[in-house]
Amino acid sequence: MVIWLIDDDETFNFLSEKIVKASGYFEKVTVFLEPEKALGEITKKIKKPEELPDLILLDIMMPRMNGFQFLEKFSAIKKNSLTKVAMLTSSLEETDKKRAFEFDYVFDFIAKPFTRAKLEDVVRNFHSTKK
């Protein structure tokens, strides 16, 4: 499996990448500090869905483009992509959670801080959505 981490916090990404790599669940981990760059990669790879990530962990609160803006743009280009998204955020707002689940490919909403146990929950939930 391939996972992308999209968050503007370098420290968070550093620690999350270590957790993800140590888990052994993923063959490849790619980190993006800017959601715009992740969308650029998706746009480049959209004709080869097998090159897209299986899973994206996405923050909500980012400058220039927030997580919801990313989801809206992703919705417009995702076509046959099977990519699933888990929101991983410091937002505990129920309205944010409700809004996230309006996107059919968002399957989880996790509060930071990120831990190995939370990653295991994400992976378990990810696999249950594939059935």
Calculate Rg over CA atoms: 13 Å
At CATH's second level, what is the architecture? 3-Layer(aba) Sandwich
What's the CATH topology label? Rossmann fold
Largest sheet report: 5 strands, parallel
**N-to-C SSE string, H for helix and E for strand:** EHEHEHEHEH
- The global form is globular
Distance between the termini: 16 Å
The structural class is: alpha/beta
Unreliable residue stretches:
none
The number of domains:
1
Strand segment tally: 5
Which CATH class applies here? Alpha Beta
The residue fraction in helices comes out at 40-55%
Beta-strand content? 15-25%
Fourth-tier CATH superfamily name: Response regulator
Question: Averaging pLDDT over every residue, what do you get?
Answer: 93
Side by side, the strands of the main sheet go 2-1-3-4-5
- Please count the helical segments: 5
Describe this structure in words.
By secondary structure, the chain is an alpha/beta fold. The protein has a single domain (7-114), classed as 3-Layer(aba) Sandwich (Rossmann fold). It is 44% helix and 20% strand. It contains five helices and five strands, in the order E-H-E-H-E-H-E-H-E-H. A five-stranded parallel beta sheet has the order 2-1-3-4-5. Strand 1 (2-6), helix 1 (10-23) and strand 2 (28-32) form a beta-alpha-beta unit. The longest helix is centred in the first third of the chain and has 14 residues, at 10-23. It starts with a strand and ends with a helix.
